[in-house]
């Protein structure tokens, strides 16, 4: 029987070929967990936040992994997996800009106008 809502039930858990190429290029051909050099044909795309726990299948939520690391990650989120791997920095290659240390910015002093003096 034809189900009108079939497309809503299915969730796409894999990236398309072009997205995988972009992911591989951004990771510079290395596993983002262990750093091992991998060929494109060996690459697995993992999720920072697993689909089973509400994550989406997007480039922003994806990481380039070798088969071993993908299996080790299982359904752990990225931060938990990195802690298990013994890495304290949980930032992946694809997570965007580098974060600068937090510095307290001083607000510019408001100059007093003529009417603020009275």
Strand content: 5-15%
Number of strands: 2
**What coarse outline follows from CA principal-axis ratios?**
elongated
- Rg from alpha-carbon coordinates: 22 Å
Structural class, from secondary structure content?
Answer: alpha+beta
At the first level of CATH, what is the class of the domain at 15-86? Mainly Alpha
Terminus-to-terminus distance: 81 Å
What are the secondary-structure elements, in order, as H or E?
HHEEHH
Q: Average pLDDT value?
A: 80
Number of helices: 4
Fold-level CATH name of the domain at 15-86: DNA Binding (I), subunit A
Poorly predicted spans: none
What does this structure look like?
- By secondary structure, the chain is of the alpha+beta class.
- It has a domain at about 15-85: DNA Binding (I), subunit A (Orthogonal Bundle).
- About 25% of the residues lie in helices and about 5% in strands.
- It contains 4 helices and 2 strands, in the order ααββαα.
- The protein has helices at about 5-10, 15-25, 65-75, 80-85, and strands at about 45, 60-65.
- A two-stranded antiparallel ribbon has the order 1-2.
- It is elongated and about 70 Å long.
Provide keyphrases for this structure.
118 residues, alpha+beta, DNA Binding (I), subunit A, 7% strand
Task: Give a short summary of the structure.
A two-stranded antiparallel ribbon has the order 1-2. With 118 residues, it is of the alpha+beta class. The mean pLDDT is 80.
How do the strands and helices of this protein lay out in sequence?
Layout: H1 6-9, H2 17-26, E1 44-47, E2 62-65, H3 67-73, H4 78-84
